[in-house]
Design brief:
globular, alpha+beta
Length: 193
């Protein structure tokens, strides 16, 4: 008599991340950018005032950080999707011919830790390099420790401030986007003298 045993099958892999440009004024972009601001505002107010941000504070913050600068030809807003569902965003804008600035990197809480942020950073860095940018910069708050750790893992290094006057810009980073070819091996010939 044969004995049947159950074999656990591995769980199917989630669909791969896709990242594509999204008009900053689209409903998807507006929803993600609002969630981004609500997330960072809530964290700020909980840390410094022991409360969550009000709807009015979120509205004022969204209005203070317009997304129009994340539109071609001087910017881009990218959206990460998994299985067609929007899960996060990242933007970039040109600061000058050689420099881009990373803006509003956000992944919905239920999708964090699944590779969306890395996919967004790779895509936004490629977009900036495609414009001819040699480097990409960013500023962030010190309490956004997960973001700081992500940027460091992705090769961003801390730099001196490159702008002033924003009370939420507490730490600054930069990453070189130039592709460096490995040095060619040097050839030496020994004399036979």
């Amino acid at each position: 008599m044969a004995v049947m045993t159950e074999t656990a099958l591995p769980a199917p892999s989630p669909p791969a991340w896709t990242v594509s440009a999204e008009p900053a004024g689209s409903p998807v972009a507006r929803a993600l950018l609002r969630e981004y601001y609500a997330d960072v505002a809530d964290r700020y107010y909980v840390l410094y005032e022991g409360r969550r941000a009000t709807a009015e504070e979120i509205e004022a913050g969204v209005a203070a950080y317009p997304s129009g600068e994340l539109a071609p030809p001087h910017g881009v807003l990218l959206v990460a999707r998994q299985g067609g569902t929007p899960a996060g965003c990242a933007g970039a804008r040109r600061l000058d011919d050689r420099t881009a600035e990373l803006k509003q990197v956000f992944v919905r809480p239920g999708r964090r830790g699944q590779g969306a942020a890395g996919a967004l950073l790779r895509a936004v860095e490629a977009a900036a390099a495609g414009w001819g940018a040699e480097r990409i910069r960013l500023d962030t708050r010190l309490d956004l420790t997960e973001a700081i750790a992500l940027y460091r893992r992705r090769g961003y290094r801390e730099i001196d401030p490159y702008h002033f006057g924003d009370p939420y810009a507490e730490i600054f980073f930069e990453k070189d986007l130039l592709r460096r070819e490995p040095p060619a091996p040097s050839s030496t010939t020994a004399g036979t003298g």
